[in-house]
Design goal:
The protein is of the alpha/beta class. Helices cover 30% and strands 22% of the residues.
Length: 360
């Protein structure tokens, strides 16, 4: 059961339990999150991967309670150090945003205020969260810019966001988010708009700085190569559900859920002849999603019961879970022969770009 997943982390900093989020649109109710379960331990980097529209960013925004109309959190718990964030007032929640939990968005130049200098924005964050005089905060802002390895931080502190390159803007955003020394950093596709060389620099810098302040990271990404190189654990999402969770090495070398296995089989492989593998069918419309397991119309192992009930996260082995009836008691999971069809995967070559696109 999903409860066993939470028991595997002795000192969790974040637990998302059975989270449901809907969006009320003119087309109908979009059931964006369908009972998401996720846990992050202290000092862990957990990757959240999946196709566009699967619910990754909605999950991240739910943790900070940034779901706004027409969206609504309908049920579940979000436990941060044991405290349910969904039970807090908006005023109490503001004490957690920024100071305890920070979030880096995909587009730093959109998130940064174009009317204020970089130094002023970082200083304001320090002054608000650390209760420091603004003069002291401005001095500290320059030191933080130096920490994120920006050349000539004194000059950059007086520049505006539009004057910075994409990589420098992301470093400035990273400095702002880490200045209050949060316990949890949520990074939503932090390198998606950057070239490969800058991506590696930002990811290495982010993990190094977070390690220094002993924080945890929830890293949202499409890139399985980034997950392989960066994350301790990985959660795979499909159509509003976490369908697989475990250590990065275990999930990428021994995928248990048919969807995860399909993603890895679909990765380009120069050694493989023939057409590129694709998962049959298409991503479901979340206004009218399939009953039961949302992946069952596309699953080559689907059984009649898959169309009836949403499967819980079941234990594949210690610390490895999959939301699939193949792992119910008395069943053996995906046949061993099926694993032989997997190519040499991204774990064997983490530097290779392996991106989960809009459709697989």
């Amino acid at each position: 059961m999903a409860e066993q997943m939470f028991d595997t982390v002795s000192s969790p900093i974040l637990e998302v339990r059975d989270l449901f989020v809907n969006f009320y649109t003119y087309r109908g109710v979009v059931r964006a999150l369908n009972g998401v379960n996720l846990t992050i331990g202290r000092g862990e980097i957990v990757g959240l991967v999946g196709e566009t529209g699967c619910g990754k960013s909605v999950t991240a925004r739910s943790v900070l309670r940034l779901i706004r109309y027409p969206g609504k959190i309908e049920g579940g718990q979000i436990l941060f150090e044991g405290q349910d964030l969904l039970a807090l007032s908006e005023r109490e929640m503001r004490e957690f945003r920024g100071r305890q939990i920070s979030m880096i968005m995909q587009e730093p130049k959109v998130s940064l205020n174009p009317a204020f200098t970089i130094g002023a924005q970082i200083a304001e964050s320090i002054a608000i969260h650390d209760y420091k005089p603004l003069d002291d905060a401005q001095t500290e802002a320059i030191e933080i810019l130096r920490t994120v390895r920006i050349a000539d931080p004194e000059q950059v502190a007086h520049q505006y966001p539009h004057e910075l390159s994409g990589g420098m803007a992301q470093r400035a955003m990273l400095a702002m988010m880490l200045a209050p020394r949060p316990k949890l950093l949520i990074a939503d596709e932090p390198t998606s708009a950057l070239d490969v060389t800058i991506q590696a620099q930002i990811l290495n810098l982010m993990t190094e700085l977070v390690e220094q302040i002993e924080a945890s990271i929830l890293l949202i990404t499409h890139d399985l190569g980034v997950v392989a190189e960066t994350c301790d654990k990985v959660a795979v999402m499909y159509a509003g559900n976490v369908v697989e969770y475990g250590t990065t090495e275990e999930v990428l070398t021994n995928p248990a859920h048919p969807y995860t296995r399909g993603l890895l089989r679909a990765l380009p492989n120069l050694a493989r002849q023939g057409p590129l593998y694709t998962i049959r069918g298409s991503v479901p419309d979340l206004v009218d999603p399939p009953a039961g397991c949302r992946f069952h119309p596309r699953c080559e192992y689907a059984m009649s019961e898959c169309a009836v009930e949403r499967p819980d996260l079941l234990t594949v082995k210690q610390g490895h879970f999959a939301a699939c009836v193949l792992y119910e008691e008395g069943r053996d999971g995906i046949p061993d022969a099926a694993h032989d069809e997997l190519p040499a995967n991204v774990w064997a070559n983490p530097d290779a770009s392996a991106t989960v696109g809009e459709q697989s």
